[in-house]
Amino acid sequence: MPPGQLSRRLAGVRYLKLMCAPLRCQRFHTVPRHYKGRTGAEHLWLMRHLKDPFVKAAKVESYRCRSAFKLLEMNKKHELLRPGLRVLDCGAAPGAWSQVAVQRVNAVGTDPSSPVGFVLGVDLLHILPMEGATFLCPADVTDPETLQRILEQLPGRRADVILSDMAPNATGIRALDHDRLISLCLTLLDMAADILSPGGTMLCKTWAGSQSQQLLKRLAKEFQHTRILKPEASRKESSEVYFLATQYRMRKSPVKP
Ligand SMILES: C[S@@+](CC[C@H](N)C(=O)[O-])C[C@H]1O[C@@H](n2cnc3c(N)ncnc32)[C@H](O)[C@@H]1O
């Protein structure tokens, strides 16, 4: 693609993201006046958002974002979260996955007969406080300083479950966005050696593409079981899939650069 065309395309994508950012991951059900002048693509996005049953359900059930239903479904099928577990939620803003984790690990101690778990969320963005969760924000998961802060917060300096719904800011160039997300997941997998307890679980979001096999291979080496999940709440037209890896067996040899 010629450089002029590429920069025009990127400027277009940036504009669209800027316009839609306040709407994403929010409980939003009416069309504000200032969106009246939107383009066709924005209009389509907004209409789909307003009709989305998971957006409506998130409002009814007081989840901060529709993505709660992705985790609820994956958790229902694969039992990732149970009372007493320590959870690290990477890319936690606005906090819907943390809400689900707080409930499932009994982080507030709502059920006195079950062990009390712990939820630590990390994000580049600010996250509103939540009972039962601790947030490190703004913080970049890939920053070595953040790793130290994570370890300081985790009881026993270990997590039993690492969740990652992280997504880098999309450029709209599919292959580039895919590479950036895979690289984020691989960095997190490197960090797992310091964070995740033996037998632990890692669930990470990816966008399907040419590097997915590389990540899957690494997960298969370091965990006993790996699966690819596409929950109902994940939009069919999205290339988003989740890799679930269970029974962490710790890294046997150093990661190749
Ligand atoms: C799809 S949202 C997560 C939604 C969240 N699971 C929820 O249910 O509320 C993706 C998040 O990943 C965060 N993110 C992307 N790269 C990150 C990084 N390097 N460190 C921390 N957070 C990151 C973004 O800021 C964004 O808030």
UniProtKB/TrEMBL annotation:
Keyword Nucleotide-binding: no
Ranges in coiled-coil conformation: none
GO CC terms in record: mitochondrial matrix
CDD domains: AdoMet_MTases
Family: Belongs to the class I-like SAM-binding methyltransferase superfamily. RNA methyltransferase RlmE family.
Function recorded in the entry: S-adenosyl-L-methionine-dependent 2'-O-ribose methyltransferase that catalyzes the formation of 2'-O-methyluridine at position 1369 (Um1369) in the 16S mitochondrial large subunit ribosomal RNA (mtLSU rRNA), a universally conserved modification in the peptidyl transferase domain of the mtLSU rRNA. This activity may require prior 2'-O-methylguanosine modification at position 1370 (Gm1370) by MRM3. Essential for late-stage assembly of mtLSU required for efficient translation of mitochondrial DNA encoded proteins; methyltransferase activity is not required for this function.
Protein name (Swiss-Prot/TrEMBL): rRNA methyltransferase 2, mitochondrial
